[in-house]
Amino acid sequence: MTTTLTTQFLALAGILAVVLGASEAPDAADEAEIEARSLVRLGDTARLEHALAKARRGERVVVGVIGGSITAGAAASTEANRWGNRVALWWRESFPQAEIVFVNAGIGATGSDIAAHRVQPHLLERRPDFVGIEFAVNDGGKPFVKDTLEGVVRQVLKQPNRPAAMLLFTMHQDGSNVQDQHAVIGDHYGLPMVSFRDALWPEIKAGRIAWTDIEADAVHPNDRGHDYCARFVTRVLDAVLADLPADADLPPIAPLPGPKASDVFEHAAFYNAETLAPVRNDGWDVLDTHPLFGPGWRSATPGSALAFEVQGTAIGLLFYRIKGAMGIAEAAVDNGPPVRMDAWFSADWGGYTPYELIARDLPQGKHTVTVTLLDEKHEASTGHEFRLHAVMPAGLPHD
Description:
With about 400 residues, the protein is of the alpha+beta class. It folds into two domains: about 1-250, SGNH hydrolase (Rossmann fold); about 265-395, Galactose-binding domain-like (Jelly Rolls, Sandwich), CATH 2.60.120.260. The protein has eleven helices and 16 strands. The radius of gyration is 22 Å and the shape is globular.
């Protein structure tokens, strides 16, 4: 099955020649090579075959994507030009008899660490049948990316409706990403994987495509780049659909294997001011509702302390960072060492919500997380404000 589908994938790529962008595009042979290189691994297509068969029957199919700002659609000129929307359009055009629902769970400046805590409310509650996952750029520089990506993947794959998942690897302007680490998890679960980096970096290095032909800045694809991302995903869908058996002959879906790196982030929670009450609050106010994360907590008074009681073997916090009158807080779990969080940073493009791991490898049971606003601040900051958006434990007790 895999050999046949791979052959069909290459055949489909070989007949496509698309001229896009402002500068001279590669010729037809180059386009075929680009698309062929995009396929990292076809993997086990059983889940995908079942999702496609569901659409073929004219049933309701939910197509979901989750990732960072690339998936959210930064630098795409219109919503329709985002890679996820283009993939959803492929489903609608391929199955006009089916109801195709699209869910975009992309949030800028977030990685799989935050996604492991938010994938349930932001995506899985919609019961997706197909999920595209894109964190290969935003997971860069993080020490436990295999653990957190595996947490996202396991949560997707263990859903009762047994959805299909695919990994998309994008890249930074220097060609870097964490594809090698993500692919370890993808291989373990037999996920189809496609790479924007593998497909296009050789063209950039050879001078056949300029970075600005496909990217709007150091990391965000422009419309042409989004089109490439979508085409790499839909070429896999085309190949599997071309060889899709009758419903009676669909392959069985393999049981979920044991974890490769860790199952800690499979069992994760997201608590904000609506879902978690502090056991101690000295000087913090409830923060106005964030459009994506809900209400949190805010203080601008040094010495203010906030404490929570949660379970889990790993505990992280979500806070806000921006170039402004922002301060520094420290957080500790039980009597463990404090971790500093600086809410000021130098960039001018706006604010974002970083994830900070406070403690890991904790014993099971209840733990106290204490956040204290310090009298210190960055020398360029004019204030001490600190906004805490969420408490995010992982490694929660489970059967």
